[in-house]
Amino acid sequence: MKLKTLTLLSAGVLALGSWAPYAAAQDSMYMPSMTYRTGPFAGGGTPFADGYADYFNMLNERDGGINGVKIDVDECETAYNSQKGIECYEATKGNKPLAYSPLSTGITLALIPKAPVDEIPVFSMGYGLSAAADGEQFPWTFVYPASYWSQLSSILKYIDSQDGIEGKKIGFIYLDAGYGKEPIPLLDQLSESMGFEVAKFPVGVKEMQNQSSQWLNVRKERPDWMIMWGWGAMNPTAIKEAVKIRFPLDKFIGNWWAGSHADLNAVGEAGKGYLAANFSGIGQDFPAIQDVLTHVVDKGLSKVSSRDDVGNVLYNRGLFNAVILAEAVREAQAATGKSVITGADMRDGLEAINLTEARLTELGLPNFTGEVTGSCGDHEGNGPIFIQQWNGSDFERITDLIAPMTDIVRPMLEEAAATYVSDKPDWQPQACG
Amino acid sequence: MLYREAGQFKTSYAADQALLPIAQDRIGLFVILISAFLFIPAFTSDFFIGAIMIPFLVFALAAVGLNILTGYAGQLSLGTGAFMGVGAYSCYKLATYFPDTNIIILILCSGVFSAIAGIAFGLPSLRIKGLYLAITTLAAQFFLEWCFLRIEWLYNYNDSGAIEVPQRKLFDIAITGASASPVARYLVILSIVALLTLVAANVLRGRIGRSWMMIRDMDIAAELMGIRPLYAKLSAFAFSSYYCGVAGALMVFMWLGSAEVEAFDINHSFLILFMVIIGGMGSLTGCFMGAAFIWVLPVIIRAVPSMLGLDLIAATTEHITNIVIGVLIIFFLIVEPHGLARLWQIAKEKLRTWPFPYSST
Amino acid sequence: MDVLLSVFVEPFQEMLAFPDFFLQVIWEGFVAGVLYSLIALGFVLIYKASGVFNFAQGIMVVFAALVLVSLHEMGVPAWLAVVLSLGVMALLAVGIERMVLRKLVNQHDAILLMATIGLTLILKGVGQLFFGGEPKPMITEQLGLPTGSTDLEVFGGLVILQHIDVAATVIALLMVIALAVFFSKTRIGRALRAVADDHQAALSVGISLNQIWAIVWFASGIVALVTGIMWGARSEVSFALEIIALKALAVLILGGFTSIPGAIVGGLIIGIGEKMFEVYWGALLGSGVEAWFAYVLALIFLLFRPQGLFGERIIERV
In chain B, what residues touch A45 (CB-CB under 8 Å)? Predict the structure, then answer.
């Protein structure tokens, strides 16, 4: 090792000093995108990130941005790791971001207390802390179009509508992390009020691909239905194991993160009959998605590996995430009269979300999802879900929209929100008239 | 020329055995400390402090902990992440039970619990060593991780299994929780790290530290010379885990703000091991260099393409970081097994005669 | 008392009450054990010949399978993809020997271990850079591996045997036999054993250490590819496998670092042990005990028999 090499090394370190964090230009708005294109969950993270970025890029290409202001999507890789997520947050929060969509329950939990301090809303679309649906307690967090708890209640409602849930045994297989444990309190509560039995099967994050003992236990317990709160490599493995023990797949329902093409392509024909909840439309037959194809994908501005990936479940989910954010930007611009808005304006915009069917059609997404209407107190929008079924090569929507059991879920959400806030003396709720 | 100790005569044994016998070193350290305590908070951005300096200090402390065990006592450990976790969870429980006690005291106490865990899992080291021991530390890693997940009491029965840091104040300034400013957190961490490093430096050159090094260099010879392996090894485990535990508590309370089990997983153990290898085994300075290097490298790799006008996917930089760190580890193991610390030492030797290498000192 | 009952009595009653289910548990454990053994086998080969504890074996499994699947995705026929993947593993073996092992001769065990950790990072980065990080389905059918299952009716119940699991067992068996023959009957195999016994003596009778190392890394590359195919067929090919592969370390402790039969027996003990423990006792502890069972078993084992079941020599005792 020579002195010269040393000098070179130190020059490299010095070069870092001269590097300033990315500076946002004034004619654009900064929209961070926390992605995970690496790690064990990359299979789900990649299409979601593609859909998210492509929609904003489509708006930039087609309309020149939102009301003339371009959206600058900047990706930061988290690998579904909370610590890296916080790193991303710290690194980008100085660029005047409009909102964060962490796409991980762990990162969401970490960002919730930071959001009010830095005045940047957190939009965890259909994941994260269910209690954040209570806008009075969580002014800066949004879970449109529905919280996990609402979703679970819809799934149970579906099971009930099939052959009655009372007296049945429901198996719940879940990823043993914040995400998978989130709906358990509601499940326990509803098992009493609806009169069904629950058997729980946790799957460790490291054991995702080695689930044979969980499924042996399933075989032992003989549940009538299985519900899965899975993600990443856990999903295809679970479906394969279910096939192995001859569990009827049409009684096996995944939540909306456990029913994507990324999961089922690995299973293929064997996974026929598998059910999953979903709230975003499937396929490319929507005018907005056609626009994405012409303005972004065909011009080579997208990172999707093939044109066919556009329109798959998670791609459209990511796209829908961007749709809600874009709509919130429009609401905020209309309310403030400014064209370049801040995180605080964005928060107001998110509360003013009013995606009716008419508006969705206008946006080029007719029949894509249920209506999402937010308010000061309601940060979940009461979104309904539908059930889709795998036909061996693609997902087909098999039900109408199923509304959650708001009357049961809402009081529980409020209670949970109050509990969350109770040990935080400096927490700032908001008053909604 | 710049770094010449000629003319610095010692008149007492105490002066000769001082921590930094050379005046230039004392001045250098003084300058570093002054800039760390004054210039960095005053002149750099929140981004620099929050996203670079704070994690750097936390990891440097954990690397000191691992280096005590691996670099000085010669016991390879792959369970650093779990020991950090023990510190973090015990600090969380302590903060729940003693809400009025100063959080800094709690952080320093939480290390004791991880020291106990370290001793428990260090017991096999009395019978085995080397690779076999590395596997028992893996057992510690996975078993403790499972405990963090399963024992709900540890995270106060939180629904999502995460620990969330409550707000605590020092002299009426928030130092933990979301509203604590990066500068306040930074200064607290810096003080703790500086203090603990000073302690480590003194322990290492004292009787205990030397007994560790004797065990590392040749255990039988050490035993013949009156070192008791039982005490030497277990004290190394205890010290090391104490440092890791405090680092873990700092990581959650002063940096992340909330944590799930995954914050203490095996990848963390590896990350800190890399810092120790690249920084230099058996060197405290090396811990800081290694931590800075590993932490800052991804930032550079992320920044360089954008400076050159290339648009790389975020994930690509991640992969490149992996490759670069991997290559560097092998490179250092082959070319310079003592890591960056040794390079720094070589540089100092050169500086002694620079810029007139042929003049006599 | 209840606790004692549920630990010492009830699980056994359950086993007797549902013998078909018990058999199924044993079978699942057996298959998992075979797969652990395969990973451990790769470790043993390398450790025996070069004294390197190859931490990268797990990632080599993922890497080999990923190369295979990605080549097939690019339109290469399955058999050619297998050949090409073997070629990649051979290149890798030569590369590792040239760039890493040769430079680290005579270094301490721990240094070599850390070098392979570095190697792990490189392979992980390269693999994801070229083939993407998302999980890929294994090309089971294209490789001519059986799918489907057979039902065995025993004890008035049902034991379901997956054909792919049976195939995995058979292939593992064949591979062990092939390795045994290779070691005892071929010239290279005898050279390998000579190197394993004594480097100096082997050198002095004209065996090239470097060549032997490259061969042995290639051999464990082949084992890795086979393991990757089998694991991949059970779930899919993804980097999450890497952590499961760490369980092979526990297998090694049980079986001894240098013993091929040890790797097999150790793998089976861990595989069957962890499934039984999880199914019959796991619920008492809140389940998920599989994550650490193997390591803790190894830890306890270490205290009593550090050289493993079939270890050749007493390891460095303190």
Answer: none
> DSSP code of B126?
G
B69 vs C: CB within 8 A: no
| Mean pLDDT per 10-residue segment, chain B (361 residues) | 73 78 80 83 78 88 92 87 92 86 88 92 78 81 85 76 77 73 87 92 89 88 87 91 93 84 84 87 87 82 70 73 86 82 82 70 48
User: CB distance A209–C235 less than 8 Å?
Assistant: yes
ipTM for this prediction: 0.80
Query: Is the CB of B149 inside 8 Å of chain C's CB atoms?
Result: yes
Residues from chain A that touch B142, judged by Cβ atoms under 8 A, are 206
What domains does chain A contain, in order, with CATH numbers? 28-147+283-385+411-422 (3.40.50.2300), 148-282+388-407 (3.40.50.2300)
Residues of B in contact with A32 (CB under 8 A): none
Domain boundaries, chain B: 46-353
Residue A265 touches partner C, C-beta closer than 8 Å:
yes
Chain C residues in contact with A235 by the CB 8 A cut-off are none
Tokens linked to A5: 């090499």
Q: What is the pTM of this model?
A: 0.84
Report the amino acid identity of residue A100.
Answer: Y
d(CA B81, CA B84): 5
Closest partner residue to A182 (CB to CB) among B159, B164, B317 is B159
* Contacts of A among chains (3+ CB pairs under 8 A): B, C
Note the pLDDT tens digit of each residue in A376-432.
Answer: 888 888 778 888 999 888 888 888 888 888 888 888 888 888 888 877 777 778 887
In words, the CATH class of domain C2-304 is mainly alpha
**Record: contact B178-A113, CB cut-off 8 A:** yes
| The CATH number of domain B46-353 is 2.60.60 | no
Rounded distance between C-alpha atoms, residue A18 and residue A241, angstroms: 54
Taking the C-alpha atoms of residue C31 and residue C270, their distance in angstroms, rounded to an integer, is 11
Query: Contact, A201 vs A230, CB < 8 A?
Result: no
**Which secondary structure element, helix H or strand E, spans residue C93, and what is its range?**
helix C78-99
Partner residue opposite A204 with nearest CB, options C18, C32, C291: C291
Domain ranges of chain C: 2-304
Q: Is the peptide bond before B124 cis (omega within 30 degrees of 0)?
A: no
Neighbouring chains to B with at least 3 Cβ pairs closer than 8 Å: A, C
